[in-house]
Design brief:
Layout lengths: L2 E6 L8 E6 L7 E11 L1 H7 L16 E8 L11 E4 L2 E3 L5 H4 L10 E2 L11 E5 L4 E2 L6 H4 L5 H11 L7 E5 L3 H12 L3 E6 L5 H7 L3 E4 L13 E6 L7 H6 L1 E9 L12 H4 L4 E4 L5 H14 L5 E5 L3 H9 L6 E5 L1
Parallel strand pairs: 10-11, 10-13, 11-12, 13-14, 14-15, 16-17
Antiparallel strand pairs: 1-2, 3-4, 3-8, 3-17, 4-5, 5-9, 6-7
The protein binds NADP nicotinamide-adenine-dinucleotide phosphate and zinc ion (ZN).
The site of zinc ion has 5 residues, from loops.
């Protein structure tokens, strides 16, 4: 028996408490990781509040994990104790379906999210399928790299799939944990980048991260001024926004892609999509091979999360700051 120690929410919306739990047996394909850092993603808050009605309590959330390999199962190849690895929002899949065979495990119907049911990374250790523990390039410091495991890959993969390049005009909606990395990746891909934000104090940093234009999205005339401007809009916000006004900022053949999860269903008339052949889409994190590629791109291009760090014992303080949109730009727990 191995006892791990972390912080769990006893019920929806309750403060996290110290929590010890028995680890699952180390399977032949598993790896055990001694966690050094874990980012706090807004999805953790959605889960801790049971916004999606799929959380199981007590819940140990956390899925932007970096640590060192402590032990490997008998069938694991390519990972050795002491090696630095990261785990994101997915920690397993069936391994045999069409999508797993293609290396698109994030589309597997039996994909195993790291925090549903958990236990996730707000703890000293975790055991996961070794396929989902990715080596971290040396150039990336752990605290700035942890947010890449969820926030980074979640914005990288739709930009990559959309073929974003020097010809692209990209708008990033929301400059939070996901958004501030999306600005950097879109710029590294060569796009002209516009950041939409409800926080005017983020303008200087958004420009420093690579946005050529900053739109204070709460200004009444803000969206009207950029009608017909963008090939690709990536929404990273947690709120309901006037989506039809955003569709109007797309150029013909433009796409409004959701990675952020607004509380309400999307309501859009079809005609503004039909005129201009526009698309609305969504994107779910990324596969292990996408994560490897994204980490290399980040290491090469100098892409780093801007982080505020907290000791694990201050996890409730950190979560409160995320909930109030006070963090600039990702809270990371250090163990
Ligand atoms: P975050 O760090 O809290 O950032 C969200 C940003 O949204 C805020 O910084 C803010 O940006 C903007 N925002 C917040 N409230 C708003 C409001 N009332 N009106 C307009 N804008 C508002 O959150 P995150 O960790 O980046 O996560 C963002 C979303 O992505 C969450 O819904 C999360 O669940 C989802 N997510 C999805 C996936 C996936 O696989 N698709 C993976 C990870 C996360 P400004 O201050 O710049 O306006
Ligand atoms: Zn996440």
């Amino acid at each position: 028996m191995s006892t791990f120690h972390g912080y769990a929410a006893p019920a929806a919306g309750k403060p996290l408490e110290p929590y010890s739990f028995e680890a699952r047996p180390l399977g032949p394909g598993d790896v055990e990781i001694a966690i050094s850092h874990c980012g706090i993603c807004h999805s953790d808050l959605h889960l801790l509040n049971d916004d999606w009605k799929m959380s199981q309590f007590p819940l140990v959330a956390g899925h932007e994990i970096i640590g060192t390999v402590a032990q490997v199962g008998s069938a694991v190849r390519g990972l050795t104790p002491g090696q630095r690895v990261g785990v994101g929002g997915q920690c397993g899949s069936c391994g045999t379906c069409e999508w797993c065979e293609r290396g698109e495990e994030n589309l597997c119907a039996l994909q195993q999210p790291t925090c549903i049911p958990g236990p996730g990374g707000f703890a000293d250790r975790i055991r996961v399928n070794a396929r989902f523990a990715l080596p971290i390039p040396e150039a990336l410091p752990s605290r700035d790299a942890a947010p890449l495991l969820c926030a980074g890959i979640t914005v990288y993969s739709p930009l990559r799939e959309a073929g974003i390049g020097a010809h692209s005009r990209v708008g990033i909606i929301g400059v939070g944990g996901l958004g501030h990395l999306a600005v950097q990746f879109a710029r590294a891909m060569g796009a002209e980048v516009t950041a939409f934000s409800t926080s005017p104090d983020k303008e200087t940093e958004a420009r420093a991260l690579g946005a050529q234009r900053f739109i204070a999205a709460r200004e009444p005339s803000a969206l009207g001024a950029v009608r017909g401007s963008f090939d690709f809009l990536l929404s990273t916000v947690t709120a309901d926004l006037p989506w039809l006004d955003y569709v109007a900022t797309l150029r013909p053949r433009g796409t409004l892609c959701f990675v952020g999860i607004p509380p309400s269903p999307l309501m859009l008339p079809a005609l503004p999509l039909i005129f201009g052949n526009k698309k609305v889409s969504g994107s779910n994190t990324g596969s292990p091979s996408d994560i490897r590629e994204m980490l290399e791109v980040a290491a090469r291009s100098g892409i780093r999360a801007r982080t505020e760090t907290f000791p694990l014992k201050d996890i409730n303080t950190a979560i409160g700051r995320v909930a109030r949109n006070e963090v600039r730009y990702r809270a990371v727990l250090e163990l």
